[in-house]
Amino acid sequence: MEGDSVTLHTDVKTDQQAKIRWYYYDTRIAQISGDLSKTCTDVQCNEGTERFRERLKLDHQTGSLTITNTREVDSGVYRLRIISSDTITEKVFIVAVYDVPAAEQDKMKRKSVKKGESVTLDPGEVKNLNDSMTWYFNDTLIAEITGDPNKTCSDGQCEDPDGRFRDRLHLDHQTGSLTITNTSTTDSGEYKLQMNRSRISIIRSFSVIVTDSRVSSAAKGGVFAVIVFVVVLLFTAAAVAAGIYYRHRKSTQGLNGMFRLHSNNEGNGALHSEWGLTDDC
């Protein structure tokens, strides 16, 4: 599936003399030597070859090649050539990356549930009998299925030091899907599934968010209370402003009635007040 990481395993360990070369069809895309003096990937190996654009990683211990954030155009034939002092070994890998609509990927890889509900993470792959599937939570091994039923584990049987899930994990041995029951907010985080099939490993990431409905309700109540308080505050401020304006207007009208002056056209032009006072005073 697009977006996954795919690792092609050499099943060997490098030595000082061996050279490991990776080809995509006939184009060299990666190389490593035992002394690490001639290591390259993608455009470093061939100028103008930018198909993978820094998405290739080499394991310096084994020479295994990992392609991150895979795309449909990465599908095809990959060839491995191991050159030692006296032998040349070649292996062929067929990689098929299929495109999945973004909405479907989001539905599959991103899960959001309420506290106490169950959530199932589905690999979306048909599991073969000898496939091994390993589940990680924030890089901690929490569940594993191998071809040997005696080597299947979950939660405390694996490497879960704090017993976070406490018997709340259920593995489907037919599909490899992982179900978390009675979820808690502490179950939120990144889950990774590593699927090992023959000499190819696939890593798929899942995001889980667990929300507490009680916290959400309390938060909503708090927001509502704040809104009510603000509305009351605005009404109070408006009422106070209206009262001040009314008193100011009334006072102004009274003063205008007491002190408004006008000219007397009948006399010598002296000003008289509304009180009827004359210059005889």
UniProtKB/TrEMBL annotation:
It holds the Pfam family V-set. SMART domains: IG. The chain crosses the membrane at residues 223-246. Residues 1-98, 108-211 form the Immunoglobulin domain. Keywords: Membrane, Transmembrane, Transmembrane helix. Gene3D superfamilies: Immunoglobulins. InterPro entries: Ig-like_dom_sf (IPR036179), Ig-like_fold (IPR013783), Ig_sub (IPR003599), Ig_V-set (IPR013106). This is Uncharacterized protein LOC113080620 isoform X2. It comes from Carassius auratus (Goldfish).
